[in-house]
């Protein structure tokens, strides 16, 4: 039996007042309720990774593809490279900022190149209208990184309000909109990507 | 007579080995050779602005539209707000990173909101194939910020090589590709935006 695949659910916004950890936590909880033993899923928080705005003297695509990690100039880049290499696939959970993705996510993606190549990527957006404008931008960027992006698109509507009431309302909206089924299908698409490769 | 409009040519990449200052300098030099007295053009370098990854506790669109500057939490945001307010229009000169714009530019755009609104924006991309994939992303983001984006698209092809030889080769390529005429037309479109508003 093949070893269980390791999937990261990426918390993409790093601003202090973000609700991204709640949204990503919801996505992970839906996945963890699916009976299956072929993948383990964990949260990966870009705020914890804490990269500065890109300042490597190297071009990420120009380091050796088979072992890029030791070639970066900064220790934080080597740590990020090693961390991303540990995962077999990614679910990017991202807000929409000004009709695209936040700089925090673009920055983390741009820091490295070979580490993403060939791995499957799923996209979950959120915003007052579901963050749907961030999705085509992110999908194109991930294709540029030669990741295999999978369907369907999951767009979660958020609301304003006090934390507890807000979270309750959002969960109700998501369940009503069929988000759990979409997340389940999205996760199945990710797993299928591995079967196709084996 | 109306006061001369102030236009910033924005150096959008902040990585140490960037050629963005050379490319933006070329764009500014073409514009400065156009005989006209209705606008003054200067370089605005995002590396000098030196913003960290977005960490304001506020949502930029939620500060008062008529005087946003004093409402930001961090001094560097207030300085960026005041600087952007000084300009009437912008020419964003950007590289393409992974089929989109660099995080450094998205970050600078996302830090503020009202300061951009209603001002005209021109786009110049560069890359080995002209950076043409960055253009539709940036145009959509600028439209999201309610800027008036103008045409045509100017895409400048870059080459590899030692600095002096490289710059010479790029200038020759750009002149051969009609870049000077396109930049001149783009600048005229920016100025027309002001006439339309007066």
Q: How would you describe the shape of chain A?
A: globular
Greatest interface and its participating residue counts: A-B, 31 and 31 residues
State the CATH superfamily name of chain A: Flavodoxin domain
Based on the coordinates given, report the CATH architecture of chain A.
Answer: 3-Layer(aba) Sandwich
Assembly level:
homodimer
Radius of gyration of chain A using CA atoms only: 17 Å
Return the average pLDDT of chain A rounded to an integer: 96
- Helix-strand makeup class of chain A: alpha/beta
> H/E series of chain A, N to C?
EHEHHEHEHEEHH
CATH class of chain A: Alpha Beta
Strand content of chain A: 15-25%
**N-end to C-end Cα span of chain A:** 12 Å
How many beta-strand elements of chain A?
6
The name CATH uses for the topology of chain A is Rossmann fold
Give helix % range of chain A: 40-55%
**Uncertain runs of chain A:** none
Kindly describe this structure.
Two copies of one chain form a homodimer. By secondary structure, chain A is of the alpha/beta class. In chain A, strands 1, 2, 3, 4, 5 and 6 form a six-stranded parallel β-sheet that branches. Chain A contains seven helices and six strands. Chain A has one domain: Rossmann fold (3-Layer(aba) Sandwich), CATH 3.40.50. In chain A, strand 3 (89-95), helix 4 (103-110) and strand 4 form a beta-alpha-beta unit. Chain A binds chain B through residues 14-17, 51-57, 97-104, 106-107, 109-110, 113, 133, 137, 140-141, 143-145, and chain B through 14-17, 51-57, 97-104, 106-107, 109-110, 113, 133, 137, 140-141, 143-145. Chains A, B: This is NADPH-dependent FMN reductase-like domain-containing protein. Chains A, B: Pfam families: FMN_red (PF03358).
């Amino acid at each position: 039996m093949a070893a269980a695949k390791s999937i990261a659910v990426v918390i993409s916004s790093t601003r202090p007042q973000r609700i991204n950890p709640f949204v990503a936590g919801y996505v992970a909880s839906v996945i963890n309720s699916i009976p299956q033993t072929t993948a383990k899923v964990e949260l990966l928080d870009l705020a914890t990774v804490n990269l500065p705005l890109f300042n490597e003297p190297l071009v990420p695509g120009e380091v050796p593809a088979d072992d890029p990690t030791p070639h970066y100039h900064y220790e934080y880049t080597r740590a990020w490279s090693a961390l991303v290499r540990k995962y077999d696939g990614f679910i990017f959970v991202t807000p929409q900022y000004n009709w695209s993705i936040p700089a925090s996510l673009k920055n983390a993606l741009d820091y490295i190149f070979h580490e993403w190549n060939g791995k499957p990527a799923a996209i979950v957006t959120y915003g007052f209208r579901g963050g749907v404008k961030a999705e085509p931008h992110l999908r194109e960027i991930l294709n540029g990184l030669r990741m295999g992006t999978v369907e369907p698109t999951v767009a979660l509507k958020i609301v304003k309000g006090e934390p507890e009431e807000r979270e309750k309302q959002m969960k109700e909206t998501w369940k009503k909109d069929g988000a759990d089924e979409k997340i389940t299908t999205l996760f199945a698409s990710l797993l299928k990507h591995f079967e196709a490769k084996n």
